[in-house]
Here is the input.
Amino acid sequence: MTTETTHHGMPSYWNAVITAGLITAIVNSIIGLASAYLTIRGSTGAGQGLWISACLVSSIAGVIANHMYAKGFNLTYPIGKGALLGFLAGLVTLIVGTAISLFWTEIIDTGMNEALMQSTIANLETQGLTQDQIDQALSLSPEPGSMNAILLQFVIGFVSLSIINLISGIISAKIFAKEEE
Amino acid sequence: MVQLTAQSEISSRANLLLLIGSSLLAILALGPGWYADDFLAPFHWHYSFFSWVCHQDPTRSFDFMDAQMAVCSRCIGIYGAFALGFWAKGLTAKFEIWPASELALRLFLLFLGLTGIDVLFNALDVWTNTHYSRLLLGACFGLMASVLISSRESFSKNV
Here is the structure.
């Protein structure tokens, strides 16, 4: 690993942040897509069951980034810096994850969003909801694949992934970048 | 003396920030039951917010005011106890009752391991966990996470 040094005299953390974001986004996307296809095939329970394994995957970016940075350069730093690394790794995860999702739904399988929507409607019908209630429920979320939906998902993902990776970053800094006593 | 005062102030501010942030997360995790119709609840932004970090399986989640919570029973335990830890730290800041970081780390890793074993053994049908067993393990894990963060030596002068 080449060591790029910042003006503060500490090695750059971007290698660790980007690698952590890439790994997390790829694993998350694979599990997310598998879960979506299971839901489309009518196995809602199996889709959600698969997502259980991904429950904590989203928060792993902060852990990987801090582990790589602290152990890779044998550094110690305060938890505030761990939080920053977690936040940035979460941001990279979101950007890469959104790019993979757009690539998949716009190029590989353009009918996926529509199929997911139909599956959601079928699921609501089996729950005994009236057409009026279904329309009311669907009006709460933008049409899948639309610019509004993409933006909304990005903004919500930004807040959600930032916070969760900020927390995992703080915990990881406490574990991996702790000063020797 | 000046430096010590400054450190103490920053430390309290960091704890306060974590307390407010974690409490907000825990409240959001309860879901929209207190203001939304039950059938509309799963379409509210609470669910979108947590969809990145929780499977939100209705069969593995508690209801709050007749609507499914925004996270599963394990996650509500994690978020709730995580916030509770910072409240407890804030209320007992003057007393030396909190474990040192070494012990806090061991307890955190213990409950992380137990949670992993519970997930694995349930998936392998070795045992069947319940809402309350998941809640309890999640709460222990969440509490230990906040205890670890706020344990002694955590608020160094550079925070």
